[in-house]
Design a protein that fits this description.
This protein has 612 residues and is α+β, with helices and mostly antiparallel strands. The protein contains 15 helices and 18 strands.
Length: 612
């Protein structure tokens, strides 16, 4: 008996399956099309809602910013209260699965990503960053952050610290979000407002970062958690070192619960030379600057990296004086002139009489007149110490205009004339990358920087007569990387009869093999990390140079000698294999580090080609 087959022949099965899949495919395509249409409609609806909310919010933002600038925290809070619901609505309207999917679409995906990132960024600014700044305003910008005879009231700083930490964390999120957007892929309708937003965040970022560091580091460094001891080093710009000048007067300052006390003063003679290096040196540092960096306290600033200088100085002080230091602070006479704008004129003992110092004459008196009128050595050292004590003592006693003093310190720090190092690792990590840190060898931002540094080789005080001008003269993108061209102009302003009219202590008296009246300077050129210095020309002629690798930089060093009134140009190129940080809508920028001199600051931001 046979059983009849009930299944279809293979050819009939295949035909039916094809009809089955065709049917489902048709319905699937229709469903997908419907989903796309619905998704686009929802995105459009949300985008319009977000645009409307952002437009209304941005109308209110200037009022909040104006109130912050004026120090009116009550008005700023009121304006932010009107803004926050609008930015929250815009953020909610541009968040969710649809927006995440649309951000990966071809052609318009980056526009979607930028729109969503902009809404979230504005909400973070309105809900977290600006309110935190209003809370910290009284401590960071207001009159409560002052120095009196009783010290600094640390309460406002401590109270504002948590809010500023939240603002800094919010900026971390903002930076991550903006970094995910490719500004070059945006259409014009989105690119322009997006670039404006990025520029505004770029303006606000350093304010937030600075306020966060001040509120986090200030209390601890001012002794909120126990007494601190710092060594203040006065750098003498008349005898240049890469980091500013040769250390002259020294002072020990203690802090305890906000009270700042000038304990005592010393000179570099209290720290005699060491037979061996006090700390190991990087081979490149030793090759460029010799082992004197680690054996003579006067030569610790031969390297332009301030953390290296400070660690060596602290180790020397602790070895000789038996005192552990919590940090080192360095400053120069130009910074002192800025501070005198806040204190006003001060009378200081000088020899058998006295001299009145003010912002206009202090640099000349310290770096020139004192050598002509006082005996070199103990007498000039005593004068420098007296000036430092008088200015510092007046400031610490509350005898300075708070707003002017604050602006003076900010200006001096931005020119690398005030540098700070902490012996506490966590604090030093927070200082890293700031203008106060001077961390050329290790700072992340400093990786792309170029340096032109000056070390005196005259053996006198002739650097007072050295005018300097360092400029970027060109920047191009090549197959081998970005090539930047620089020109350093050095001019001796010494009088024609300097050899006879200036004291031997100023001219050096020829003890270093330099003709009295001449200025000999070792010029040290630092390319970006991973880069190299190209052809170097002095006065238009190619010249050789000592080359050494300093922590990833192929640096070059060469001597330049100038007679009275002479000028020469050191022209060179540097090649960078990594692009400079780019600013949307503009060329890239890098930091140009130089030795701060009597005539020029030590830091400038310069535009370069945005390659890569």
């Amino acid at each position: 008996m046979t059983t009849e087959r009930t299944d279809l022949p293979p050819r009939h099965t295949g035909r039916r399956r094809r009809r089955h899949w065709a049917s489902w495919l048709g319905w699937g395509m229709i469903g997908l099309a419907v989903l796309v249409v619905v998704g686009v409609a929802l995105l459009a609806r949300d985008a319009l809602a977000a645009r409307d909310a952002l437009t209304r919010a941005l109308d209110e933002v200037p009022a909040a910013e104006d109130a912050l600038r004026a120090g009116d925290t009550e008005a700023a809070d009121a304006a932010l209260a009107r803004v926050q619901p609008l930015t929250a609505q815009a953020r909610a309207s541009t968040d969710g699965p649809l927006w995440s999917l649309a951000a990966h679409l071809p052609v318009y995906g980056q526009d979607v990503r930028a729109f969503s990132a902009a809404a979230a960024t504005v909400d973070d600014l309105a809900a977290v960053v600006l309110p935190s700044l209003t809370q910290a305003l009284g401590a960071v910008e207001g009159d409560s952050l002052t120095v009196t005879s009783e010290g600094v009231d640390l309460g406002p700083l401590v109270e504002a610290a948590p809010a500023m930490a939240r603002a800094a964390d919010a900026f971390d999120d903002i930076d991550d979000r903006l970094a995910a957007v490719d500004p070059d892929a945006l259409h014009a309708e989105i690119a322009e407002p997006y670039a404006t937003l990025v520029a505004r965040t770029d303006d606000l970022r350093p304010v937030v970062r600075t306020a966060d560091r001040i509120t986090a580091l200030g209390p601890a460094m001012l002794g909120a958690e126990g007494p601190r001891r710092y060594l203040v080093v006065a750098l003498n710009s008349a005898e240049l070192r890469a980091g500013g000048g040769i250390p002259g007067a020294l002072a020990v300052v203690t802090t305890d619960g906000g009270r700042v006390t000038l304990e005592r003063q010393a000179s570099t003679g209290d720290v005699p030379p060491f037979a061996e290096d006090v700390l190991p040196l990087d081979p490149g540092v030793e090759a460029l600057f010799s082992d004197r960096v680690a054996r003579y306290v006067q030569d610790t600033p031969l390297t332009p990296d301030f953390p290296t200088t400070a660690r060596l100085t602290a180790a020397m002080w602790e070895d000789v004086q038996g005192e552990a230091l919590d940090g080192v602070v360095a400053t120069d006479p130009v910074a002192l002139s800025y501070l005198l704008e806040a204190t006003g004129p001060l009378d200081v003992p000088a020899g058998s009489g006295s001299v009145t110092l003010d912002a206009g004459n202090v640099v000349q008196v310290l770096l020139s007149d004192s050598y002509a009128q006082l005996e070199a050595g103990p007498e000039t050292d005593a004068f420098f110490a007296a000036v430092a004590a008088r200015v510092l003592g007046t400031f610490l006693a509350g005898g300075a205009d708070p707003a002017v003093a604050r602006d003076a310190l900010v200006r001096a720090a931005s020119e690398h004339r005030v540098l700070v190092w902490s012996a506490h690792d966590q604090e030093q990590e927070r200082l890293a990358g700031t203008v106060l840190a001077g961390d050329l060898d290790t700072g992340e931002r400093a990786a792309s920087s170029v340096g032109v540094f000056l070390n005196d080789a005259t053996g006198g005080k002739m650097s007072y007569y050295l005018d300097t001008d360092v400029r970027l003269t060109g920047s191009v993108c090549t197959d081998g990387g970005r090539v930047d061209s620089f020109r350093a102009t050095l001019t001796s302003t010494a009088p024609a009869d300097a050899a006879s009219s200036l004291p031997w202590y100023v001219t050096g008296g020829g003890i270093s093999g330099v003709e009295p009246g001449d200025v000999r300077t070792i010029v040290v050129l630092y390319p970006p990390r991973g880069g190299e210095v190209g052809t170097v020309r002095v006065g238009g002629a190619p010249t050789g140079a000592l080359v050494a690798d300093v922590l990833g930089r192929r640096a070059a060093s060469l001597p330049v000698t100038l007679g009275p009134g002479q000028t020469t140009e050191v022209a060179f190129t540097v090649t960078s294999t990594s692009p400079a940080p780019a600013v949307p809508g503009a060329a890239g920028t890098i930091d140009l580090w130089t030795t701060p001199t009597v005539s020029a600051p030590g830091l400038e931001v310069v535009p370069v080609a945005a390659c890569g």
